[in-house]
Design a protein that fits this description.
ACP_syn_III_N, Thiolase-like, Peroxisomal Thiolase, Chain A, domain 1, 13 strands, ACP_syn_III_C, acyltransferase, two-stranded antiparallel sheet, globular, transferase
């Protein structure tokens, strides 16, 4: 499988740390020290998970003239912050593309959903049911967030990203998906209560951030090492590591465990906050133009619930 193009959509409205200082007294320096976040994006009036998914997909297709919408035969969408649980972001993207009677799937495994979406594409490709797929990840965190929550209200940002994936190579610049590994870890720690989003109750809450931190660091490093071992690669063979953008301290911890140079880790959390399952895909888009032949990229993720995964890409 090959990633032919990736594009993102980020809302225009910027929420700085000073907003939370005025709201609930959290100092900007404290937020930066604890999370690495300086600002985040917030969807405006009329924007939501579906509209952001559509715009990210428009941008990806506009950059891919050899991947017309008419050639798409599978759409997989992922979010844990749906605008509509029935007319999902994947359906909205299908309607936008005008491609009827193809498989359309929406999933959620929290912040690790990107890699599960890629695995679904892998399955459709392997069974011969599809050959060109749109994977779109979109989060409207601020629709569910309580900004006055001093534990987690300052963490979240909105955004979306779309990956165009083909069974065969289309362009020399395509990234080959070498391998994807995912897993669930719902039996460990406080997976059942550490991060929850119950729409009819409080929205997003994270009462056990320390538990999330500990297991995210453990699993993201472990699955990356497992992936590299399976591919007979060393950490030095990886050009860029793109972790889930949950917390800059998690990224630094994982990089330290792996023995990787810090500058090889891609981070956008400083400007975007935690954009959920879209964060790593946005990071891949940020890195796309820097990649050259022979480069390898590892995306590693961890999500509330708990779930995790890693993917190796090669140009």
């Amino acid at each position: 499988m090959y990633i032919h193009q990736v594009a993102a959509y980020l809302p225009d409205y910027v929420v700085t740390n000073e907003h939370f200082t005025r709201l609930n007294g959290l100092a900007s320096d404290w937020i930066i020290e604890r999370t690495g976040i300086r600002e985040r994006r917030k969807a405006g009036p009329g924007e939501n998970t579906n509209t952001m998914a559509i715009e990210a997909t428009r941008r990806a297709l506009a950059q891919a003239p050899t991947f017309p919408a008419s050639s798409v035969d599978l759409i997989v969408g992922a979010t844990y912050t749906p605008h509509d649980t029935i007319y999902t972001l994947a359906h909205a993207v299908q309607r936008e593309l005008g491609v009827n009677e193809i498989p359309v799937v929406s999933i959620s495994s929290a912040c690790s959903s990107l890699l599960n979406a890629v695995e679904i594409v892998e399955g459709y490709f392997a069974t011969g049911k599809a050959s060109r797929a749109v994977v779109v990840v979109s989060e409207h965190n601020t629709a569910y967030n309580n900004e006055q929550d001093t534990m987690a209200g300052h963490l979240w940002g909105d955004g979306a990203s779309t990956l165009l994936i083909s069974k065969e190579r289309i362009s020399p610049s395509d990234l080959r998906i070498v391998e994807v590994i995912t897993g669930g870890a719902a039996v460990v720690g406080k997976a059942d209560e550490a991060v929850t989003l119950k729409p009819v109750e409080k929205g997003i809450v994270m009462p056990h951030g320390r538990d999330v931190f500990t297991h995210a660091c453990t699993y993201m490093a472990r699955v990356t090492e497992q992936l590299l071992e399976r591919q007979h690669l060393a950490v030095a063979d990886v050009t860029y590591l793109i972790p889930h953008q949950a917390n800059l301290r998690i990224t630094k911890n994982v990089v330290k465990q792996l023995g990787m140079a810090p500058e090889r880790a891609v981070s956008n959390i400083e400007q975007l906050g935690n954009t959920g399952c879209a964060g790593a895909a946005i990071g891949l888009g940020d890195t796309w133009n820097q990649l050259v032949e022979g480069n390898r990229v590892v995306i590693t993720v961890f999500g509330g619930g708990y779930s995790y995964g890693a993917m190796l890409l090669e140009r």
